[in-house]
Design brief:
The complex is a heterodimer of chains A (193) and B (215).
Chain A (H helix, E strand, L loop, with lengths): L5 H8 L5 H13 L1 H17 L9 H4 L2 H20 L4 H92 L13
Chain B lengths: L1 H4 L2 H5 L3 H11 L2 H23 L2 H17 L10 H23 L24 H20 L2 H12 L4 H8 L3 H18 L1 H6 L14
Classes of the chains: A mainly alpha (193), B mainly alpha (215).
């Protein structure tokens, strides 16, 4: 019996198989205890995974700071309007308290949010600086290597020049010595004859 | 055409790709805020499942969005935004795991002090003893998942918890779909072995919708 591959079964277990595949594999499953056992094991694993649940990320916690600020501004504006139409001292005090509370909340929220983001950005910046420093260092090393190669080449050239110059000087010296000991041959047309 | 013209989402919302394009080209803060609002939950969950720590998961999600903004110029409009973001988040998780392993801080017993993993605080709040049992089961699963090798764990997290299709996971990880499926099968086999006691002690017979596909 040809057994479907685990890849086929995964398509079925996670609802990604086509209708035809599903019918074929269902038929196979009824007739094959070996595959049925495997599928049972996988399904048990899937069921167990569902035991680890995570809470929904709280939207209030992640609202951008500007939302708090906007909400605070809206409530403050409302407070101003109410204040204009109210002569009650008590009302004024309550609005002032409300303003302070909103201001405090907005500041706290914005501060915490901003702090978190700043930490993230600072980290990124630090990484970026690290990368920049590494690239700079690599470039410097490359320049250094290039210069070293240049110096080595110059040394070689100078060595060659020195050897050649030395050889030529030796030749010139020999010629000078030869010239110093030179005696011209007798002139056949001289008066001595 | 008329249907499209009067489609509310098309009038008042943008796709992730459009939003990211505005972030890239105009440094559009509002578009960025929308992306964060849409993706904060899934990315935070991914990081938490990969690292096994809810607090670190939250921090890593923040890091992911910070990096998304600083590297916004790297986004290519031909690529799916989700693939781009999942990859970025996974790279941050891998970096964190490397750091933790280097420092010897990678823990399989985060909740031993009784500060168990948080559960949905819905209206049907379980009784304290039931909650304790749930926490214990969750802790067992968390440990089993963290014991999986990273190539297997990432596939389980993306498919089982985040609900990506096998093909999408292949795109994110840069591997063939068949490889993703075979890794998933292997991961489930390993998990079943490790969680054998959990499954036999507490048979959970409530099938999930997708499991009803079989017979």
């Amino acid at each position: 019996m040809n057994h479907p591959t685990p890849e086929h079964w995964m398509g079925i277990l996670y609802g990604e198989a086509t209708e035809t595949e599903r019918h074929e594999l269902d038929a196979h499953l009824r007739a094959c205890p070996e595959c049925a056992a495997k599928v049972k094991t996988w399904r048990a694993g899937m069921g167990a995974l569902d035991e680890w649940k995570l809470p929904q990320a709280s939207p209030a916690r992640h609202q951008p700071a500007w939302r708090w600020v906007a909400a605070a501004a809206a409530v403050l504006a409302l407070g101003v309007v109410i204040g204009r139409f109210s002569m009650s001292r008590e009302m004024d005090n309550r609005i002032a308290a409300l303003r302070n509370e909103i201001h405090l909340k907005a500041t706290e929220s914005a501060g915490a949010e901003a702090q978190k983001w700043l930490t993230g950005f600072a980290k990124e910046l630090e990484e970026q600086r690290g990368t920049d420093a590494a690239s700079y260092l690599a470039a410097l090393r490359q320049v250094d290597a290039h210069r070293s190669a240049e110096i080595a080449r110059l040394r070689r050239d100078l060595g060659t020049v020195a050897v050649v110059a030395d050889a030529r000087l030796s030749g010139a010296e020999e010629q000078l010595y030869a010239l110093a000991g030179y005696t011209p041959p007798d002139d056949p047309d001289s008066d001595d004859e | 055409m008329a249907k499209k013209l009067f489609s509310w989402p098309s009038l008042f919302s943008s796709t992730d790709e459009q939003a990211m394009w505005r972030v890239r080209t105009d440094d559009d803060a509002e578009a960025f805020a929308k992306l964060v609002a849409r993706w904060q939950g899934p990315i935070q969950n991914l990081c938490t499942r990969m690292i096994g720590d809810a607090h670190r998961g939250e921090d890593l999600a923040q890091d992911t969005f910070a990096r998304l903004y600083t590297r916004r110029k790297n986004y290519e409009p031909t690529a799916r935004f989700s693939t781009f973001l999942w990859r970025m988040a996974l790279n941050i998780c891998y970096d964190e795991l490397r750091k933790l392993k280097r420092r010897g801080e990678f823990s399989l017993h985060e909740y031993e002090d009784g500060d168990g993993p948080a559960f949905d605080p819905g209206a049907d709040e379980p009784a304290p003893d039931a909650r304790l049992a749930e926490n214990e089961r969750a802790e067992t699963v968390r440990n089993a998942l963290l014991q999986l090798a990273e190539p297997y764990r990432v596939v389980v997290v993306l498919r089982h918890y985040e609900g990506l299709k096998f093909r999408e996971i292949g795109d994110v990880l840069g591997i063939p779909e068949g490889t993703v499926k075979s890794r998933m099968a292997e991961a489930l086999s390993q998990l079943s072995k490790r969680l054998n006691s959990l499954m036999t002690d507490e048979p959970r017979t409530v099938p999930r919708p997708r499991e009803k596909l079989l017979i």
